[in-house]
Amino acid sequence: MSTTLTLAYWIDALLLAALAYCWASVLVQPGMLLAPVQAWVRRLHRRAWFYFYIEGSPGHVNAGQMEVEYYAGHDLDNQWWWAPLWGCFKCVAGQWAFWGYLLLFPLSAYHLLAHLSFVAVTILISILLNKWSQ
């Protein structure tokens, strides 16, 4: 597990945590860089949801009321794939650390425990960054 002893390991974990925190907590706020992109994805999801679940239902009489009633539990915040993309800074940090480890470190020296600890350390650093920024 010599990968954890290198300085690059800790610097990469710190950088991934900082980037993930900025991506999921700062840049998606109203008026920030990614806010229009996130709003576009939300509109696209709502439109697709309406098309497949409301208009596709037989006899969609009063479709507007059905949309209001049923979409409440199906918005993006309740979708399993939303949090790792940018709905939760801890989830984003974990995803980026998981895949980043495979890109940053050589596969010839792969060690499962080093990989899992890299993910855990990155998530922990992102939590500390969140506490520090509040």
Mean residue pLDDT: 80
**Total DSSP E strands:** 0
Percent of residues in helices comes to over 70%
Rg, Cα atoms, Å:
20 Å
| Uncertain residue segments | none
Distance between the termini: 35 Å
Structural class: mainly alpha
Number of helices: 6
How many separate structural domains?
Answer: 1
Instruction: Bin the strand percentage.
Output: under 5%
**Mind describing the biggest β-sheet?**
none
Shape: globular
Helix and strand pattern: HHHHHH
Transmembrane segments: 7-28, 109-129
Keywords: Membrane, Transmembrane, Transmembrane helix
Structure description:
The protein is an all-alpha fold and 134 residues long. The protein has one domain (2-133). Helices cover 70% and strands 0% of the residues. The longest helix is centred in the C-terminal third of the chain and has 22 residues, at 112-133. The two termini are 35 Å apart. The model has no long low-confidence stretch (mean pLDDT 80).
